[in-house]
Amino acid sequence: MAYINLLPWREEAEKAKQREYFTVLTAVALAAFAIVFLVNQFYQLRIDGQNARNQYLQNEIAALDVRIAKIKSLNEKKKELEKRTSVVEQLQRSRNVGTQVLDEIAKVVPNGIYLTRLEKLDNSLNIIGKSESNNHLANMIREIERSDLFEDAILESITSNDAKSKLLSDFKMRVRIKGLINSTETTEQGAS
């Protein structure tokens, strides 16, 4: 007798193929997911590494900015100290100006000139006095120009007063003292 298989083998074969298909599909999906996950992790590690380098650079830049600010403030302090030192040195040089001025006045004033008043304003000296002749004043101006302490002698006025004396004429002269700083310059430098 012939052997007849009455079991539903086609349906079982189809179910086996379906199971095999879903198994392969699941394996491919898992492999694709693993590949995507690994690629994502690789690039994420590279991004994290670059972010860490960027953060390190930003921290170093901030530290250098702080140093630069300190250097700028130190340079400003240095300039301020140099200005103060310069002012102190000039004040030290001009400390004995009063005695130097009187000593130099005694050298430059010739016979025939009589000083009645000396006024010092900043670095200029106003000389008021009487002169026997204009030649004596000219000699005095020449001596002032040769002086190491005085410069820029300007004769502002010569007046002759007939009522008082015919021999003497009044004069007013302005002279600049070399090497002195103005008090306005001192206050400006001290303020800055």
UniProtKB/TrEMBL annotation:
Residues 64-94 form a coiled coil. The chain crosses the membrane at residues 21-43. Pfam families: PilN. The keyword rRNA processing does not apply. It comes from Colwellia chukchiensis. One of its GO terms (biological process) is type IV pilus-dependent motility. It comes from the Bacteria. This is Type IV pilus assembly protein PilN. InterPro entries: Extracell_DNA_Util/SecSys_Comp (IPR052534), PilN (IPR007813). Keywords: Coiled coil, Membrane, Transmembrane, Transmembrane helix.
